[in-house]
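Below is one record:
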Amino acid sequence: MITQLPILQVVIPLIAAPLMVLLRHGTAAWLLAVGVSWASLAIALGLLSEVAGGGLVSYALGSWPPPWGIEYRVDSVNAYLAVIVSMVAAVVVVYMRRSVAEEVPQEHHYLFYSMYALCLAGLLGIALTGDGFNMFVFFEISSLATYVLIALGRDRRALMAAYQYLIMGTIGATFFVIGVGLLYLMTGTLNLADMAARLPDVTDPRPVLAALAFITVGVSLKLALFPLHLWLPNAYAYAPSAVTAFLAATATKVSVYVLLRFYFSVFGETAVFRALPTGSILLALSLAAVFVASVVAIFQGNVKRMFAYSSVAQIGYITLGVSFDSATGLTAGIVHLFNHALTKGALFLLLGGIALRAAAMRFDDLRGMGRLMPLTSFGIVLGGLSLIGVPGTVGFVSKWYLVVAALEQGAWWIAFLVVAGSLLALAYVWRFVEAAYFHAPDPKMAAGPGEAPLSMLVPAWLMIAACVYFGLDTGLTLGGAGEAAQVLLKGKW
């Protein structure tokens, strides 16, 4: 059974999606989505244990041996990512039941869960495939499903947000597939491991450099790297709450993985970071993301948009770690994939509870929320502390390793900027604290809207609890990230 886990990870949600359409029943579709999500988590954990310690699992589709056929190739890097995606899915899918019932028309429920299953299959497929074109196909599967999920938001602006994301996502996918096509032209293979072995023998470097540029820009659009992030704030702000939480915790993380895989496992560290100024460019864009997005977040009137811009800044921290091109920096970037997924997923789940009970996302409407919804508000404060990087939370772990990575290279000024970025996070998190705890509730809400239903509150608090637990016990997260970093730095897949 272990040998079949890579294909089961993708096939189970992929088959479930059309079954949900055939069932045409919202509750049945949700139950199937729950089963699929938890099965995906079990499979991901099984794969992670199988490759722990530097192992590798290779699965050839259709019994066509690689590089002739499509290969699923699992190591410590993408197994770690698959755990992140499936873990978030397993929590969010429980939350979805009540959230979707309130935010999506009942006749669309089964279609919503079908799109969710397709999106999950696409994200897991991107993580596990070892074929360049197959990766593009899974990109499109997840993206097309995501456009629909965003458009199902109750706000009419969700349609515009989905359309904007569609345009930007299509451009990114086009750039990516052009880059893969150029690599195929020069190497004669789409298998990424075989491609990496053949690239050193390519005599003309110009098409390879062009491929690197196309893939970098295309994937950067997908992961919302500054200044290619324009699609993200509206998509997160106007999508249904469960969709926002799922996408914020998974989609951009998968795109970061694709960039890491091509940089270190296909092109190679030497070609990307030593022969080219990639590290310096990535460093500049990452710091710009941290500061510009954080400043913009401070001045947002909508709390959901504020945390959406915060996501752009947090992506900057991830790519900042990558830009150091060191074991410590890469470990910091990879562990922040996990830590930010927990933090931002929890925050958007809690905000969904406020949207349900108070139907408000503007700061003026959140006054006194600390008294009206104390558990939800306190959870948001804890999530905000993690974004700031307060000791005892997962955010501190990521920023500590970023500071260490900077000091290892003698770049004390970068360490200073990481701390300064945390102060900006303190400024926008304080805006919620001030509104929720330092103002009296609106008289119209004097009776109090009450806490969100347990089916929404419990999943959100599980992720908040995880933010604290993994902030204190870093063995699993840092250990997995460190092993993944070492695998990437070896340069072979």
